[in-house]
Amino acid sequence: PFVAVVSDPLSSFSVVPLLVCGDGFRAFLQRRCPIVAERFCPTPWCWGGRLQTLVRVFIKSSLSITYRNELIRTGDGGQLSLDWVDNSNSAEHPQTSTRPTVLFLPGLTGNSRQTYVLRAVQQATRHGYRCVVMNNRGFGGEELLTPLTFCAADTSDVETVVNHVKKLYPQAPLLGAGVSLGGMLLLNYLARKGQDSKMIAALTLSVCWDSFESSISLEQPINKLLFNRHLTRNLCSAINRHRKILGKVIDVDYVLKARTIREFDERFTSVMFGYKSCADYYRDASPGCKLQKTAVPVLCLNAADDPFSPKHAFPVSLAQRLPNVALLVTAHGGHIGFLEGLFPNGDGYMDRLLGQFVHAAFEHLEDLREACSIKDQVTQ
Questions:
Q1: Axis crossing angle, helix 181-193 with helix 156-168, rounded to the nearest 10
Q2: Helix (H, G, I), strand (E, B) or coil at 132
Q3: Which of 127, 164, 332, 335 is flagged as catalytic?
Q4: 10, 41, 84, 362: which has the fewest Cβ within 10 Å?
């Protein structure tokens, strides 16, 4: 199902992003999210994918967001840390019970304090919406109560959080936004739940479509040096932090010798979640071939020069055939980068896209459903 993105539309420095979707979804996005038709001009001194990925971490100024933390229990006896921004003073949606809610799923080693999450939360709260960030187990500052963490294929924690949010606010529409691994989790959840996702729409940012291809890309010498080893160290640090409880089911010292994400997944993730091999886990985790099982409008932003998610793995042909999926591809932007302007320390392309799409989905939901041929769904 994977077709390479043709190079011509994305070959020049500043071009309008490639939008792959059905006619109805395209018309809706061009009308309600005009940013999809704008030229994306990456920061002139920072336009390569690797540079965009690295610089974003250091140059993006942090924001002062005050969260309300909540710990909820899971079916296996564990706990999840949720960080809320209730937006109680919302002028646009003063009624708490019906105030639209955005659920954010961070990346592999991320949490609610990442700059990309803080900026996304700021975008949503500006429009008067409520936000909640699901911190992955072991990364939200909470203790692990059971010897279980998380992976891109296991959507049980996402389902627990969605059910919890909908129980608290059954009349409030819910939209999911996932970044990198969080986007994989979100797409896998939507594919598994179909019509029962309890979400009205979804947005993914820099999602890795094929775990095998992402692993190969990240093991290229320069990517291994710049990104792979760093992420693996962060993963190993988290395991070591919780070694007392994880040591009951995993050889922690063996895991800590991992030097790449693939080695970590071979020694820890695939074992923890009962896969026969890392290949089996990667096959189950890859969302690219499951898009046809999703039942809500989904907008997916990727950069053609993302070192984590190579463009030849983008599900272009599949997106072309699905009325509810839109794939938006910029020529440059790297992984969670999308820096623009000479001094890109403020809101970037990714942040503005999120703000426009979230607003469009909540405020023009019936138009969106009609555009995506989703007419018979009950309002969640």
A1: 70
A2: strand
A3: 335
A4: 41
